[in-house]
Amino acid sequence: MPKDRACANDQPHPVSMFENNQVSGLALCGSNVFSDHMEEVEALRSRQAAYLDSLPDNECDAISEAWTLLHSDGEEYPEGFEEALHLSHALDALVKDGDLDTEGRTRDAALYISYRVTFALHRTAEQLDHISQILSKPARHKNSQRRP
Fold it and tell me: Which letter, b or e, does each residue of 32-66 get, where b requires 16 or more Cβ atoms within 10 Å of its Cβ?
C-alpha cells in the first residue's frame, strides 16, 4: 500500500526525510549512486542464491554435511568453540586475580584473550549459521516444489 499523504489537492509534494530513510536513502540519492547500489545488491543476491543452491536438497545429505561441520577434523564442537571455551577460563582467572586497572602485561593478556574469545565465538556463530542453512534447505526445497 503506498504511503501517500492525504492532501487537499493533487499537487506534487517532496519526499520527506522520513520516507527517504525508510528506503535507506535511495529515494533522494543520485542516479549513479542508485545504479551502483542496485548493482551491488544484485551481486549480493546472486551470491546468496548460488550459496543456497550449493546446499544439499536431500535431508540425509543435509544431516551428513551438518554433522561434518559440527565435528570437523574429529573435534567435539564446531570450529572456534573449544578455543573460546578454554580462553574464557583463562580470562576468568585473569579478571579475578589480575590487576586490570593499570597498564601492564596482565591487562594486555586479558585484552588479547578477550579478543581471541570474541573472534572464536564469531567463527562458531558463522559455522552454526551455516549449519542452520544446511538443515533448513530440504524443507525450503520441498516447499518450493509444492508451489505452482
Answer: eeeeeeeeeeeeeeeeeeeeeeebbeeeeebeebb
2 within a domain of the structure (yes/no): no
Q: What is the pLDDT along the chain (148 residues), one digit of tens a residue?
A: 455 555 556 788 899 999 999 999 999 999 999 999 999 999 999 999 999 999 998 899 999 998 888 887 777 888 788 888 888 888 888 888 777 788 888 888 888 998 999 998 998 889 889 999 999 988 776 666 665 5
The number of distinct structural domains making up the chain is 2
Q: CA neighbours within 13 Å on the CB side: how many for 40?
A: 6
Cα separation values, 67 from 13, 78, 148, Å = 57, 10, 33
Cell numbers at 126, concatenated: 558463522
Diameter over CA atoms, the chain: 73
